[in-house]
TrEMBL record, chain A:
The keyword Cell division does not apply. Belongs to the binding-protein-dependent transport system permease family. The keyword ATP-binding does not apply. This is Sugar ABC transporter permease. It is found in: Cell membrane.
TrEMBL record, chain B:
The keyword DNA-binding does not apply. Residues 77-268 form the ABC transmembrane type-1 domain. SUPFAM superfamilies: MetI-like. It holds the Pfam family BPD_transp_1. It comes from the Bacteria. The lineage of its organism: Bacteria, Bacillati, Actinomycetota, Actinomycetes, Streptosporangiales. Belongs to the binding-protein-dependent transport system permease family. PANTHER family: INNER MEMBRANE ABC TRANSPORTER PERMEASE PROTEIN YCJP, MALTOSE TRANSPORT SYSTEM PERMEASE-RELATED. It is found in: Cell membrane. This is Carbohydrate ABC transporter permease.
Length: 337, 283
């Protein structure tokens, strides 16, 4: 790692004179433990949780993906049956898997791009605003960020409601050349948004961008504050315009921040669940599933097929792990671990 | 246009943009709260009703007295609180021990542990749910809030350790050493010196864990089959009946669920950013 020292911190050698050292060495043993073992003892509970409840279940998930696990296995009346690659074959042969994969990837791409654009724009704006105004806007943004995912889904489901939602009301206000009502309708009133896949995902994107931009904005703001003013002074002296200054100084300086924000956003949007669950009213519309929803629906909607659900989850996990490796490399580069 | 006038115009434009962003962020939340206080005739209309002209507490009193799925909403709030607080108590204790080990000691396997921490944070909860569901059922904790707590501890611990370790590292080691020289044992130094100084970090980490557990939908949805065990996010799904949606009630319920989270969140948002973006931002 970044720090090559191997000095044992907080134990071992102490600068105290000889007669004291004996006393300290005795004390360095917490409850009679040798000093080298202390960190390991401290780690035991955390390791138990991580190994027992995260790593082992992941291993189990991989095993279940090659088994048939149904109601009999859940009740423990019959042992799990090995079925080889059958779960994967069934999944890959199913149109729903491919539409779920498409929904997952396209949604993540659109939502991440928009969240980053809106978030960055707001971050730059916050940086330019006065102190009081900036704080006022940040606090407003915190409200959007703090809303629980389920409540986010509820809010946007109501805003996109066919009859009572104000999205249709707002679209009717716009001139027809900008937002013409759907085919054969005199107005937007009564247009359902959450039944078909495309409008459903438009609503999901709107919801996720709204809830996700504040995090990007405050992170970008923190990054902007870290850029030394001399750079901007120098650019101004050299007669660089605002756009050029932004592309030549701001963006390169913020590159590490953007790398982390992009990866985190991709990971989060890839596994979006609660908001979609509320917007589509549970795992109802199969064409509208993303991979998370598809895995859960296969595993828990009767008849339960946990093996198939596990196979889908394995696919999603592999995709996420590839992205995570990039994230970890970024963090390791920046952190003194 | 004089430079002064131009600067003034620029300021006005910037502030206008700021107000618009504020409205964009806050309006949907406001809409949720406002709808909870509107009469039904102002909810079920294609017109835009900016605020309730006849304030009513009807929806709130209805969800608090009648509740949903044969239980009062207090029961679901209580379940959510038990799960969230249980997660905080167990998770924070474990996180503090692990964070101390990482921040205070150099040992074999330390960097491996750090990388594992980062990776497991990113695992999809919906994927973990499938094997954990089997495990919880096998040990007889299905339908038990404790089973739910255990899963939430697992989900929140990695980020909790990650966040806390910076707080532990920020406490100068010389303080603890001074305590030893003064004759305090290692444990005493930990409790008397390190613990009080790490307390703010512990609060921030606890709030993060609380919010995560409080917001969880998917685990509560499938680990709890009886309605006595529902948490708020699951109970809210029950408002979406077959006969159309009771928006007044669901917005009242959502507001009750959201308020504690927003209050807590405002307290710790800065730490969340620094925890997630790590060294990329010197915030």
């Amino acid at each position: 790692m970044a720090n090559p020292t191997t000095v044992t911190r907080g134990g071992g050698s102490s600068p105290a004179p000889g007669h004291r050292r004996k006393k300290n060495a005795a004390r360095a043993r917490a409850g009679g433990l040798p000093a080298w073992s202390i960190p390991y003892v401290l780690l035991v509970p955390g390791l138990l949780v991580i190994a027992g409840l995260l790593l082992y279940p992941m291993f189990q998930l991989a095993v279940m993906a090659f088994q048939k696990v149904g109601l009999a296995q859940i009740r423990g009346t019959r042992p799990a049956e090995w079925v080889g690659l059958q779960n994967f074959e069934n999944v890959l042969a199913n149109d729903i898997f491919w539409s779920a994969l498409r929904n997952t990837v396209v949604f993540a791409f659109v939502a991440v791009s928009l969240t980053l654009i809106v978030g960055t724009a707001v971050g730059v704006l916050l940086h330019k605003l006065g102190k009081k105004m900036s704080l006022f806007v940040v606090i407003g943004c915190m409200f959007a960020w703090a809303v629980p995912p389920v409540a986010q889904g509820v809010i946007w489901r109501s805003l996109f409601d066919a009859e009572a939602g104000i999205v249709n009301w707002a679209l009717d206000l716009l001139p027809d050349w900008l937002a013409a009502p759907p085919d054969g309708q005199a107005s937007w009133a009564g247009t359902p948004w959450l039944n078909d896949v495309l409008p459903l995902y438009i609503a999901l994107v709107v919801c996720v961008v709204w809830a996700g931009f504040p995090f990007i904005a405050v992170s970008v703001l923190a990054g902007l504050k870290g850029i030394p003013n001399e750079l901007y002074e120098a650019a101004r002296v050299d007669g660089s315009g605002p756009w050029r200054t932004f592309t030549k100084i701001t963006l390169p300086m913020l590159k590490p921040v953007f790398a982390v924000l992009t990866i985190l956003s991709i990971i989060w949007d890839f596994k979006i669940f609660s908001q979609l669950y509320v917007l589509m009213n549970g795992p109802t519309n199969r064409e509208g599933f993303n991979l998370s929803m598809y895995a859960v629906a296969e595993a828990f909607k009767p008849p339960q097929k946990l093996g198939t659900g596990a196979a889908i989850s394995v696919v999603l996990t592999i995709i996420l792990l590839i992205i995570t490796v990039v994230y970890v490399r970024q963090i390791v580069k920046q952190e003194e671990m | 246009m004089t430079p002064l006038a131009r600067r003034r115009l620029g300021k006005i434009l910037l502030n206008t943009a700021g107000v618009l962003v504020f409205l964009y962020a806050v309006f949907p939340v406001y809409w949720m709260v406002a709808t909870g206080f509107k009469e039904n005739d102002q909810i079920f209309t294609t017109e835009f009703v900016p605020f309730p002209t006849h304030f009513t507490f009807d929806h709130f009193s209805r969800v608090l007295s009648e509740g949903i799925a044969n239980n009062s909403i207090w029961l679901y709030m209580r379940n959510s609180a038990i799960v969230a607080l249980g997660t905080v108590l167990i998770g924070s204790a474990f996180a503090l021990l692990s964070a101390t080990a990482i921040a205070r000691f150099r040992f074999k396997g330390r960097s491996v542990f750090l990388v594992v921490l980062l990776i497991v944070q990113m695992l999809p909860a919906e994927g973990l749910l499938i094997p954990l569901y089997m495990m919880v059922k096998r040990v007889g904790l299905g339908d038990h809030l404790l089973g739910l707590i255990v899963t939430q501890v697992a989900l929140t611990l990695p980020f909790g350790v990650w966040m806390l370790r910076t707080f532990v590292a920020a406490v100068p080691k010389s303080l603890e050493e001074a305590a030893w020289i003064d004759g305090a044992g290692r444990m005493q130094a930990f409790w008397k010196v390190l613990f009080p100084l790490v307390a703010p970090g512990l609060v921030a980490t606890s709030i993060f864990s609380f919010i995560t557990a409080w917001n969880d939908l998917v685990f509560a949805l499938y680990l709890m089959s009886g309605s006595e065990g529902y948490t708020m996010p699951v109970a809210l799904q029950y408002f979406f009946g077959q006969k159309g949606v009771d928006w007044g009630a669901i917005m009242a319920g959502s507001t009750l669920m959201t308020v504690p989270v927003v209050i807590f969140f405002l307290l710790v948002q800065r730490r969340m950013v620094s925890g997630l973006v790590a060294g990329a931002v010197k915030g």
